[in-house]
Amino acid sequence: MKAHSFAYGDVKIRFEVRRRAERLQQRVAIHVEPDGRVLVDAPQDATDAQVLAAVKKRARWIGRHLDAIGARRALSLPREYLSGESMHYLGRRYRLKVTLRSDEPPGVRLRGGYLEVTAPRHDPTVLRAALDDWYRGRAREVLLQRLASIAATLRWVKTPPPMRLQVMKVQWGSCSPAGRITLNPWLVKAPRECIDYVVLHELCHLLHHNHSARFFAALDRHMPEWRTVKARLDELSEQVLRM
C-alpha cells in the first residue's frame, strides 16, 4: 500500500491506497477504519492524481468520520476495575461488581445485570487477568458455535475451518491463505448480529481471498444488511476493544 496525504482546512488527512489487479469496479472506494486509518481501494490503472482527486471530493465525509472516532476515543478512559464500571457481553451492558474474598481464587460470573469478579484483594492486574480468562472462555464457546452454524449455510464450506483466538488492536478477524480463521476474542462483547457479520466476512474469504466485487456480492447474498451491521460494530469498537 502507498501512503498519501493532503490538507483539509487545518487538518492533514492521511490515506493509504490499495491497488489490486482483480478489482472489477472502475471506481475509487474509501473506507474509514475504526482505528482512524483511511484506506482507499483503487483500480489498477488509476493514476495517483485521479485517486487524490476522488479522495478530496469525499474530504468532508472523511473528516466527519475521523471527528466521530476522536470523540469516542476521548470518552474511553482507562479502567480502574472498580465496582460500577460498564462492561459488555453479547451486546448487553453490565455493571462490574468486585467482590473481595480472601479464601477464594479469582473468578468471574454473570449475575443478573452484573459481571461479578471475585478476588482475594483489589489488584487491577489480578482482576483484569480474571476477566480476560472469562471473556476468552466465552469467546471460544460462542465463536466456535457461530462459525459452525454459519459455515453450514454456505455451499463452498464443506467442513468448518480451524479457528484460533488472537487479541488484535484494529482487526476483528482474518483468514489465512491456508483457510484458518482468526477471530478477536473481544468480539464476544459485541451484539450477536455483529459477531455473525465478522464470521461471515471471514468465511467469504474462503471463496474469494480478496475484497473484490465478487467477495462483496457473496456478503450481500448472505447478509444483505451487512453494511448497517458493520457501521454499528464500528461505532462500538472503542468500547468493545477496551479492557
TrEMBL record:
Enzyme Commission code: 3.4.-.-
Domain YgjP-like metallopeptidase as annotated: residue spans: 27-235
Annotated Pfam families: YgjP-like
One GO MF term attached to the UniProt entry: metallopeptidase activity
Origin superkingdom: Bacteria
Keywords on record: Hydrolase, Metalloprotease, Protease
PANTHER family the record matches: UNCHARACTERIZED PROTEIN YGJP, UTP PYROPHOSPHATASE
Protein name, per record: SprT family zinc-dependent metalloprotease
